[in-house]
């Protein structure tokens, strides 16, 4: 029986992947070094210095932008709860897509889209719309990550 721990290069190689790993609202990609432990690539020889390299981690989204987006979404849910006089679970289906709003060039068009989403609300929505438009001003659209260098 072999009681020696696995070689560090083997344990690192077994966790590397080029597929995106799901996380809370962002994606992190692991890019393995050439020749490092892919299934079917044969046994790993511990003497090869190329195989000892760690995977390179690339985060495609700016954490600050993600944090701003999360705070905004929490604020939207809070405001919608007040507008509809109910908890989030009881709220009617209201879709407010921030990226969709950011693609629109004028505040008038954005306001119109928001009013369409809030058509079933019996309370006045003008203050909510005005405040939301002010909060998204200067935000950037969160585009899907691109696979560069793969």
UniProtKB/TrEMBL annotation:
The keyword Phosphoprotein applies. It holds the Pfam family PP1_inhibitor. The keyword Acetylation applies. Residues 1-25 are annotated as: Disordered. GO terms for molecular function: protein serine/threonine phosphatase inhibitor activity. PANTHER family: PROTEIN PHOSPHATASE 1 INHIBITOR POTENTIATED BY PROTEIN KINASE C, PROTEIN PHOSPHATASE 1 REGULATORY SUBUNIT 14C. Belongs to the PP1 inhibitor family. This is Protein phosphatase 1, regulatory (inhibitor) subunit 14C. It comes from Amphilophus citrinellus.
